[in-house]
Amino acid sequence: SKTFTGGYLCGPVRYEGSGYPVIAGHCHCTDCRKASGTGHGSHMGMMEDAFSVSGEVNFFDAPADSGNIVAVDFAQIAARDLLEIYRHAGVVFPRASSLDDPEVFQPKFTVYTGRSPSWDRPNPDLPAFDEMLPPEIMADMPK
Q1: Which terminus of the chain has fewer Cβ atoms in its 10 Å neighbourhood, N or C?
Q2: Sheet hosting strand 59-63, strand order edge to edge
Q3: Are 63 and 70 in contact (CB under 8 A)?
Q4: Those residues with Cβ within 8 angstroms of residue 113's Cβ, 6 or more apart along the chain or in another chain
Q5: Are 4 and 100 in contact (CB under 8 A)?
Q6: Arithmetic mean of pLDDT over the chain
Q7: What confidence tens digit (pLDDT) does each residue in 121-143 have?
Q8: What's residue 82's pLDDT?
Q9: DSSP letter at 48?
């Protein structure tokens, strides 16, 4: 299985993961834009038991666009329980921008395209959704 590493810009928090993402994509929601400091965030969902973090990480709870509460780390490396379907499945969502090798991330879709700013339009080669992924697509994803 594929092994990857990443961490926070200043270095005290590092992570390692193995396996392949259960979900990977770009998001133009307000939270992802603000957290990334750009026009979108890029995340990959990994099984928590295949993901380890070294260093002190402090989480805060924040409301997501879905109305769910999301635990987000202050270092902005990963979020837990980002999507309702994975809420109890033990999935973490490392931000692709924190990867040591950015080529590990292979996006499969873009969500919340209706909120993308004019200067950061979604990749036309990826399936795009105005809001979150439709339930029928989410149901087909591995858990």
Answers
A1: N
A2: 59-63, 69-73, 78-80, 91-94, 41-47, 23-27, 110-111
A3: yes
A4: 28, 122, 128, 129, 130
A5: yes
A6: 79
A7: 999 999 999 988 877 766 666 55
A8: 46
A9: G
Q: Is the dihedral of CA 87, 23, 47, 29 positive or negative?
A: negative
**CA dihedral of residues 94, 69, 13, 92 (deg, nearest 10):** -30
Q: How many CA atoms lie within 13 A of 47 on its CB side?
A: 11
Q: Are 141 and 82 in contact (CB under 8 A)?
A: no
Residues of the chain with pLDDT under 70: 1, 10, 57-60, 62-89, 137-143
Q: How far apart are CA 139 and CA 72, in angstroms?
A: 24
In the structure encoding, which two tokens stand for residue 138, read together?
């989410």
